[in-house]
Design goal:
The complex is a heterodimer of chains A (400) and B (131). Chain A is α+β, with helices and mostly antiparallel strands. Chain A is built from 14 helices and six strands. The chains are: A alpha+beta (400), B alpha/beta (131).
């Protein structure tokens, strides 16, 4: 081959290497493999017998890949002036010609660099490519420096993008974790609030928790969406929040309340609504379903005397759940009802106090639970549980 | 894509490495590993046969440089044979030919290797015992 042929051949060889590098960097191979292949491509192109790619992280250069080095791959701590120097050099330079590295040369010894190519992407110093002597011992040419410069930019961008993707997916993961934690805190807060509401009323301990549970059971039976079920669970927990504003002595009065006292008590759905409408719930239905949970389909309820279709479904469910809990727990002025009485009460009030479809669903579910046809009891709690009507006690009262 | 497959054969005191397939990915590193293994076993005359080599890119070249360096520092002898014209020209351009003799055939490479000073002994095939 004559000189012309040789230089043409060299040009083609370099071009092919650049194409190969492009393919490597954009491939979906594992990152380590990509960097290693890239280093080999550079070394093959420059006929170098030693080389390394190092990434800058936290004040030091860490090895990403190396070939032909003698001795250990030890991270290299960078002095501030070295970092400044490297940051300002986005072109390869000869290691020997840089006086900066004359002091503290020892740490560079393992690399035995001849050429150094800092990788700088968007003004950020990504790391270094170091190339040792050529295997023939010949000096590197300007052409070699030029091709190294292009390859270093390519690899730098690859590392930069990889890190970007990595930190992005870490952030997504972090956000997911935070969201889950936030959700737990949210539920805990709501349950704590519910417990605080119930604590005001000596006779209705656990009332809010149970109503939430019954609401969910009914909503599931009615085939509501997950969103609606979540909404009614929260609404169930908070439906009596307005009782906070009502005199404790009225709530805990052992006898039937007077007309005035009744009027004050009946304010609680409105107060609940006032409080909850200021909370930015992800579910818009919550404040209204709480406001209307004492409405009756015959229009004789409170506070707005709504009838039938005007009452939102979630409020109708909550009315049934709330009444069921009231019937199945002892109150200051009366004992709990037997299961038969519960059935009779709901049957009688269908279309009056209660929406027939919702009351129907409650009775259907109750029957299934009494017959043991369900996996998990939602309305009748197991013996030994403090809250809710005990199946055995209800049964006993039914038999007697 | 790694489509290289390396085969080793030993004839007398000479090891032959067949660099078959594509020397264009990290899979080509096996060539260098096999060479190191031969050197460890005390076989210091090594011939690389390129008869079934489809393609050599810069990654393959860096691996071949690794082999040249390793045989050189072990004081061994290296030869290449059965090179296609295109590869022979690449090697010439890169200056390989100044360091590694290139033979038209494996036989000629082996004859040449025989004339080289004998190997310095091969105690066993165990790793690390290079005689």
């Amino acid at each position: 081959m004559d000189r012309d042929d040789l230089s043409k051949k060299r040009l083609l060889f370099n071009l092919a290497a650049l194409i190969d590098l492009g393919e490597e960097i954009t491939s979906d191979k594992d990152f380590k493999g990509v960097i290693k292949s890239s280093l080999y491509l550079i070394m093959g192109t420059l006929s170098a017998s030693r080389g390394a790619i190092l990434e800058y992280e936290g004040g030091r250069l860490q090895f990403l890949a190396s070939k032909g080095l003698e001795g250990e791959e030890r991270a290299i701590d960078l002095l501030p002036e070295e970092l400044t120097f490297l940051r300002s050099h986005n072109q390869p330079f000869l290691f020997e010609s840089s006086s900066l590295f004359l002091e503290g040369r020892q740490k560079w010894e393992a690399l035995l660099p001849v050429l150094v190519a800092p990788m700088i992407v968007k003004k950020e110093f990504i790391g270094l490519i170091t190339i040792g002597k050529r295997f023939t011992g010949e000096a590197y040419t300007q052409e070699d420096m030029d091709i190294l410069s292009v390859m270093a930019k390519h690899i730098g961008t690859g590392i930069y993008n990889h890190n970007l993707l990595l930190s992005l997916s870490q952030k997504v993961e972090e956000n997911r974790r935070l969201y889950t934690e936030l959700q737990l805190v949210y539920y805990d807060t709501i349950q704590a609030l519910a417990a605080a509401i119930d604590a005001k009323d000596d006779y209705t301990k656990g009332h809010s928790r149970r109503v939430a549970r019954y609401c969910v059971a009914l909503a599931e039976e009615l085939g509501l969406s997950r969103e609606e079920i979540e909404a009614i669970r929260i609404a169930g927990f908070l439906h009596d929040v307005g009782k906070i504003a009502i005199d404790r002595s009225i709530i805990n009065k052992p006898s039937k309340p007077t007309k005035e006292e009744r009027m004050e008590l009946n304010q609680h759905p409105l107060i609940s609504y006032e409080i909850l409408s200021k909370v930015r719930f992800p579910w818009k239905e919550i404040p209204l379903s709480v406001r209307y949970h004492h409405e009756r389909v015959d229009g004789k309820g409170y506070p707005d005397r709504l009838t039938g279709d005007k009452i939102p479904l979630l409020a109708k469910i909550m009315a049934v759940a709330d009444a069921f809990d009231a019937m199945t727990t002892d109150r200051p002025y009366r004992k709990r009802l037997s299961i038969d009485e519960v059935f009779r009460e709901f049957e009688r009030e269908m279309g009056k106090q209660f929406d027939p479809r919702v009351a129907e669903v409650l009775l259907r579910r109750l029957k299934k639970e009494l017959a043991g046809e369900v996996k998990e009891r939602r309305l009748l709690m197991d013996e030994g549980m403090e809250e809710g009507p005990s199946l055995r006690r209800l049964y006993l009262r039914r038999i007697n | 894509m790694d489509r290289s497959f390396v085969v080793i054969k030993e004839i007398g005191d000479c090891g032959i490495i067949y660099a078959n397939g594509y020397l264009n990915g990290l899979g080509a590193e096996r060539l260098e590993e096999e060479c190191e293994q031969l050197l460890r076993e005390g076989i210091k005359k090594i011939v690389v046969n390129f008869k079934k080599t489809e393609l050599i890119n810069s990654i393959g070249i860096s691996v071949l440089i690794g082999i040249i360096e390793k045989v050189r520092s072990a004081g061994g002898h290296l030869g290449f044979c059965n090179l296609e014209k295109v590869h022979a020209e690449t090697f010439e351009m890169l200056g390989f030919t100044k360091y590694v003799p290139i033979f038209p055939s494996e036989e000629e490479a082996l004859i040449s290797m025989e004339k080289r000073p004998p190997y310095r002994g091969r105690a066993s095939r165990k790793e690390g015992s290079d005689g």
